[in-house]
Write a structure and sequence with these properties.
single chain; elongated; about 70 residues; mainly alpha
């Protein structure tokens, strides 16, 4: 396992982990949650003009903000 780690680190640019963390943090919503694929960019009042009552509360994606302890 140590040998494999050395091989991976040999080819891994030192800035890549920082870049990855920056991308993850840039996708975080203001409330601390994460949407499925992009930032939530709309307002809750937009649900009022949703013409399909059957599909209520689907115009805006509400990301889950929970804390899990394992």
């Amino acid at each position: 396992m140590v040998y494999l780690t050395c091989i991976v680190l040999k080819f891994l640019n030192a800035n890549r982990p920082y870049d990855a963390v920056n991308v993850i943090l840039s996708l975080q919503n203001d409330n601390g949650g994460y949407a499925t694929y992009e930032l939530s960019r709309s307002y809750s009042w937009l649900e009022v003009i949703n013409p399909a009552e059957t599909f209520g509360d689907i115009v805006i994606y509400y990301p889950e903000v929970t804390e899990s302890h394992h």
